[in-house]
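Listing S7. Sequence submitted for prediction.
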Amino acid sequence: MKKTEKIITMVVAIGGGFAGLWGAYTAYDASKFKQPFDEREQMVKSFTSQISSAEKRKDNKEAVRVSLLYEKYEEKWRAARQVVRLIEPFENLVTYSLSLNESTNLRQLLVTSSDGESNPLIPTKTLGAAYLALGEYQRAVAQLNVASNKNNDPNTYALQAAAYGGLANGTNNQKVKWTYQEAAIDNFALAHKALSGNEEKLYGFVLANPDLKILLEKKGVELTR
């Protein structure tokens, strides 16, 4: 872990334990795209097996109980898939803003799909991007740190840079601000290196992000090839 990120872990004081089973799902190759659907298939089989077993035993109370749990799971699953679809352009650095209606819808979907304080049905990178889109920068950093520790993904680094830029802009504590700024620059540099030869998308993302753009310009970072 970089020195600045060690400091930030203490400053933010947010656990990164939201990852769960879905933490590794950050890339959109064929096998990883199938992962949430495979998991859902296993859950459906488990629920239907339990319901069938209860019905055979004529245990109607248990059959109803499991049926209600199954219904709740399906509701959470549908909400999680809607979050993934809604946030995909943001996650892929295609856009950096949501409409008011999209933001309202996203907040409700996150509540519906969550399981208490965690949200295991949504990949950590996607969840981090969702929090970033809503301006919840500390939550975004917590999720994106988990995602970036699992893979060398330039989009994740870019999203982290934006989240740290937002945190830097939101504090008057100069020491904390400096720490956030350094983390934003570090992550931008990692994204830039990973995208070597194909930086246009990254530059477009930064130019659409006022906090990050101003920060990088003040630090003398070039935003052209």
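Caption to Listing S7: primary sequence and predicted structure tokens for the chain studied. The longest helix spans residues 60-91. Residues 97 and 133 are 7 Å apart (CA to CA).
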